[in-house]
Amino acid sequence: MHRTTTRTARSAAAVLAAAAAFTLSACQQDVDPGSGGAGSPATPSASSTHDSGSGSGASSSHAPSTSQSPGASESEGSGQQAGRVRLTPDGKVNGVGLPASVDTVTGAVNPALGTPTKRTGKVCELSGDTGPTVTLDYGDMSFYGEAPNGAPMRIKSWTIDRDSGKPINAPYGVGIGFTQEQVMSMVPGAELNEEGTVFNDGPVITKGDLTYFLARNKPTVISIMYRAVTCE
Question: Helical H runs in the chain?
């Protein structure tokens, strides 16, 4: 009777040991090698808030969902950030400086925003030049180029004038809907013109080649332009 009980106990222990080994093996096979293993803290996906450009952005209830979280910016000159369009204060588009050819700009932007609607026109008469123009419209933002006096077509400026959630990182983290106070605090050295311009009834804030157009009645950003082209 004692021997029978001992054998039964040993058999049960062997079964339990085998089951434990099988369970451990299965768990190890299910762990993603790059996840840090079971029990590792989950890594949050990049949030759709504004890239700081050269500084950290402030949160806002108006913050467009078209940029990355502060501190998640790529290093200068590192090229395109996967699936996003990163705009820097000096006008670069995923590392591409302007002016640039149409093919160069679409090559940098299309992977993130898709194929643009293309419109053509004529160079502004007030400039004294002649020649064709092109606008590449991606929905939330557009690019403008011209070929004055027989020169090659070059994209020279961009505009952000809406926010539907496309993956665009605006300079300094400022986007559509930001208040005048936010822009002035987030853009170092920004200059405010409260009287507006002939092209905008509301306040206008400038920093280098960047221009922020604000609504008159509620001073929030309605358009951001790099090398503003205001002659239609």
Answer: 2-30, 102-113, 180-186
**Cβ–Cβ under 8 Å, residues 143 and 157:** yes
What pLDDT, in 10s, does the model give residues 122-155?
A: 988 777 788 999 999 999 999 999 999 999 999 9
Q: Which residue has the tokens 């961009």?
A: 158
What sign does the CA torsion over 9, 13, 15, 16 have? positive
The answer to whether 211 touches 190, Cβ cutoff 8 Å, is no
Instruction: Find out whether 136 and 142 touch, Cβ atoms under 8 Å.
Output: yes
Higher pLDDT, 2 or 173: 173
3-class DSSP state of 83: coil
CA–CA dist 168, 48 (Å, integer):
9
Phi-psi label, residue 83: left if phi above 0, alpha if psi -120 to 50, beta otherwise: left
